[in-house]
Amino acid sequence: MPSLSWLQIITILSFIFVIVAYSVKVRKYFRMPQNLRWDLYPIPHESGYKHGGSYFEEPEFWKKPRRINRFRDMLELAKQYFTMAAYIKRTPSYWMGLLPWHIGFYAIVTFDAFLWLDAILMKTIGIQIAASASIGGEILYYMTIVLALSSFILGTIGSIILLLKRIFDDKLRDYASPQNYFNYIFFLAVFVTGLAAWAIGDSTFGSYREFWAGVFSLQSVGISGIETAHVLLFALFLFYLPFTRSTHYITIPLSFLKIRSSDAPNFGGDVSDRKLQDALGLANQWSGPHIQTGKNWGEVVSNIPDTSAGGKK
Amino acid sequence: MTAKRKIKLNDISKNRGQPLIQPDVKDCMALPFDVGADDKIKPLTENQQNSYECSLDGISALSIPKPKTKEEEDKLVRSFLNGLEKLLSKENNFTFLLPLTLTLNYCAKCLACCEDCPVYLSSGRQEIYRPNYRSEVLRRIIKKYTSHGASLSGITDGDIELNWETIARLAELSYRCTICRRCSQGCSRGVDNGLITHELRKLFSQEMGIAPKELHDKGTVQQLNVGGSTGITPKTFKSMVAFMEDEIEEKTGKKMKIPVDKEDADILLIHNSGEFLSWPENPEAFAIIFEAAGLNWTLSSEIGGYEATNYGLWYDDVQFSRIVLQQIGIAHKLKAKKIVVGECGHAHKAIMVIADRLMTKDTYIPRESCFPVLEQIVASGKLKLDPQKNNFPVTLHDPCNVSRLMGIIEPQRNILHKIAPQFREMTPHGVNNFCCGGGSGFAIINSMNFADWRSSISGRMKMKQILSAFQDDMNPEVHKYVCAPCSNCKGQIRDLFRKYEIFEKYGIIYSGLVELIVNAMTDLREPYITWDELH
Predict the structure, then answer these.
(1) pLDDT on residue B174
(2) Phi, psi (5° rounding) for residue B72?
(3) Alpha-carbon distance B7 to B20, whole Å?
(4) Are strands B297-298 and B267-270 parallel, antiparallel or unpaired?
(5) CB–CB of A286 and B368 under 8 A?
(6) b/e burial code for range A174-203 (CB count within 10 A of at least 16 → b)
(7) B188·A266 Cβ contact <8 A
(8) CA A194 to CA A234: how far, in whole Å?
(9) Quick one: closest CA in B to A260, which residue?
(10) For B82-100, what is the mean pLDDT?
(11) What's the predicted TM-score (pTM) here?
């Protein structure tokens, strides 16, 4: 009979919840109608990227094959995630909190993913994960520790700096909401308990691995008080994430690749024509004097009424 | 220095009837050589203050009449909220729903964008001109007052009181940003405050019928019905072409028949009709170059065919689409092989970028910028050019719509490097340029005291850049040239230069790119650029 502890059940539910909630949010974006172009240069995949150029610089560009560098798209996205370099020049002191905070976040997610991986390998192929284990087990052991410590230390530093910035910077304070402060304090608690669990609990994370392995083998595994506090906070953190702006971790590629860098020229075609026809068939309900409310978009834009904003319909 | 009031986000709904700030040039970023040190922004008259909404900053771009009763106010508030619901629905805003939703959801409120905004920096960092001030006010209103609030990320954030004052201020505030989108370049989340401005303007126009008369009544409505946003009719246009032919002959000795309504041409060239009225030397220069290069081209004299502008780009998707359909229709009627857009930045972006996904297999027609076409002509050797004829300091202004929003950077530079030996860049330039301060329609909005604000604040950064580019020799006897290949930018720079007497004090003029090319042509008897006439 499966005998999972309450903490293990909460942990599983938190992972399922965050994946489902994020998927629902992202699906909503993908189901939105095709928007008009809204390019913003420089666009990384363009051959003129270095000077901010585009295919529009070429005479009769529509007769030439496009040269697109998708690798550079990915590279620039990676820079947005891992350096946030745009902040260095503009708001350096904010960047000093923001970068470690984000790296702490990436690291804690990866740390937990490694614990899953460790558990799977332990239960499926019986690998031992320890400092004295085989090369594979040794690598996993040290990577887990490095990830955990990076996460807890950088996350703690970042949370404190951002919290202090929001408290003491007049302008940042004005733009902050109570949720911002709650987030910094909550996330700080997640990172600090992680650090404490390592410092005064199990510095090898062996008990964590057993905890996860227990999840796979459906066996209840107990962990110490401070470790329980961290695991519980992390589960709550996952439950809470979809109610924050954290979906930006997933939507950044959408903002960059589907909006500002989405510059593929449209020559018309079955797919794009159908998308446009669908959109033009939508009922236009705007009430401005120059709009024939209730007609569909296609009818409204094909009709030019002799009106002004203050005039007759 | 005057004492600046500390403004908070929720102040937008407070102190009813009183301006949140009164911009004072003394608070603004200083200009080199003490230019504009005694400048003042003219306050509205008492009568204007009593009649029109001006409680944002004492400036009026929109001339919104003050509601007379509480019922009127309530009706306007309801209308605004209806518009907001529509802005966030796919039926009414398929055009920009995805980018808008992403921008509303993911701002970190880090304020990094502010360091890129020429209006905010020029104003001496006035709080209400922060690029994300209006965005954040809008987010909080959506959160608290609409059915879409719950779907916005974040749990709290809704502490703005919504009353008519809030809406009137927000309406004016949507005309304190030039939509240059410089602030968006540095946002690592892809948040776009320029888009918020664009969408707010749409809400006011498409739902409430509120838009600057220069953009709507005298702009898109006039263009669609008369033929040009300048009021030029087809008949007037034809007589202007005849005038241009006479002027070309007078200036260059070349007798020329400018092709109009020619069918099956390779190129339908469309200009901002403001060029014909204010700077005919620009379309004349195009004609000289295209004829000398032996191109098969034409202008159109039909409604929709001789006006490249599309002010709908800045405030109204419906008007935008109507104008695009009109322009494309003319090109097909003439069986032109492609449309080439003259020196007009927003016209470039409107028909080449924003209208791109409105094309179908049947309506598609290639659209091209004039810059690569001109670059190809200059590089081909078809024109005999002598750069020494342009041996004076030249700098280049990059129109935002052409550079940051389309990525056309090099062709105009390649031309200048060939024909202007003293060409120097502004700092910054290219894709990181600063807006001229007349973008998104500002250059043509002259309502009440808005032109003062535009010259003193939104155009301030460009003024500084221009002066700095020529700072090695400010002697007015040494003539200098700002190449501004965009009609709206030229309009703004013209107003700046007049206000600060830039030609008289420093010998600087502005004009386009084609004028410089023609000025370098060796077979011209007299210089094409006449300094006294151009300033």
Answers:
(1) 98
(2) -60, -45
(3) 7
(4) parallel
(5) no
(6) bbbbebbeebbebbbbbbbbbbebbeebbe
(7) no
(8) 9
(9) B190
(10) 97
(11) 0.95
